[in-house]
Amino acid sequence: MDRFVFLTFDGLSRGAVYAAFALALVLIWRATRIVNFAQGAMAVATAYAGYSVSAATGSYWLGFVVAIGAGVALGAATERVVMRFVDHSSPLNGVVVALGLVLVIQGLLGMVYGNEFRPAQAPFSRDAFTVGGVALLSRFDLFVFAAVGLVVAALAVLFTRTDTGLRMRASAFAPDVSRLLGVNVGGMLTLGWALAAAVGSLAGMLVLPTELGLHPNAMDIVFVSSFTAAVVGGLDSAIGSVVGGLIVGLLLSYVSGYLGATVAPIAVLVLLVVVLLGRPGGLFSRSVARTV
Amino acid sequence: MSAPLLRAEGLTAGYGAAPVLHGVDLSVAAGSITAVLGANGAGKTTLLRTLSGLVPATRGRILLDGLDLRGVRVEEMVRRGVAHVPEGRGVVTELTVDENLRLGGLWRTDRADARRALDEVYELFEPLARRRANPGHQLSGGERQMLALGRALIARPRLLLLDEPSLGLAPRVTAQIMQLLRTLRDDRGLTVLLVEQNVRGALAIADEAVVLSLGRVVSRGTSVDDELRHAYLGF
Predict the structure, then answer these.
(1) What is the value of pTM for the model shown?
(2) What residues in chain A have their Cβ under 8 A from chain B's Cβ atoms?
(3) Segment holding A255, helix H or strand E
(4) How far is it, in rounded angstroms, from Cα A79 to Cα A195?
(5) Per-residue pLDDT for A290 more than 70?
(6) CB contact under 8 A, A180 and B90
(7) Cβ contact (<8 Å) for B106 and A174?
(8) How far apart are CA A120 and CA A207, in angstroms?
């Protein structure tokens, strides 16, 4: 039982990061129908920027802010300079361009920083509190929950309570109609990419200290788990991405804990296949009427 | 009839290399209803999409109150007083009725008047007030048309471009919408350019009718004679 409790908390902590990263994927998917396969590479690039500033200044938090800010800038630049010019007549075009971006970003990071792993500092202790002899959560885990919870709440307020959120949703669902109603759809897309990349950067800053550290490919596995989370929840559902992230986090934790870490990636793939077979639109997809 | 609010001169536009409109000339008097009629593929919808900027004109010019609209971005058109209710109504089905209506007035700097306009729309279309929290996909065809019209009215437009408002609606609902357009023209001086397949309904309220065929204006006037009806409108 102790082990189950520990694995549950560990899974929720990991899942929170996957949820944030999946949310970033969903934000872009809903706005542009593009799965941003470059999200992981972009997050690593901003993490490098953040840790460079931390190393130069000795302040983790300054580096943290720089990483998030770099995410905003990189996301906006990616939309304005690259993605806006992609021919959307085929969904494959966006995928190919995103994969190209992955190669470019990872290549540049390798050239600038080298391809060896570098330690990534955590702002809080990763030693878990123990209650009744059971290791539960560390200060860093609490920070992860708080950061992800804050971001999810802020995005929920933005999208459901503000005029900008209404413009962003309308631009995503009906761009031509939105333009006719005076909405700057291009600006909303840029904002969406900037927000998504910032959330991705946050996820990177939260997960890198717990994984192998900084490396140009450090987020590849995280991307796979988060993409699975987004698909499990439903690529069109922000709530689904959060729930999907937690499900994937728990699954990875339980499978790693009880069956071994080598089985965990297979479990994620099995989950993906089961959901795609049973509910292809994801757990939180809206029912679609079919004309016969 | 009063001076033209909208004029199109030699308008040529289309999709890719294939023009759909070929040198269309059009004049719409302020405070009037002008019906644009024609068979499928005549270019009626493309005409409206070109006037609102969704389809760029490759030749010709569009004048609104004498001001050339060339180079004006689509999202600016509503600020110039042009509201376009597209074919299929353009209701954002994922948003609620209230969100759809608010969306119509977000660009307005006079927020107090935007709120007044919202209240007026709820008074004008009472069923919408009852369903303000419902998402657009739960509305009937008639309610969606009300929503699209109401959303356009929140902008307090001078010119309303209306594409096939009767499409898929029961005759009774169509008659209500036609009557509403007449009221908006008479009471508010709204200028309407109405694309409609329901020729009889459109002619019943229009001050002028323009007949398009294969992207060219083949007739304009206060009525459509029998010969034109047989040739271009199929009845």
Answers:
(1) 0.88
(2) 163, 166-167, 169-170, 173-174, 176-185
(3) helix A238-259
(4) 11
(5) no
(6) yes
(7) no
(8) 9
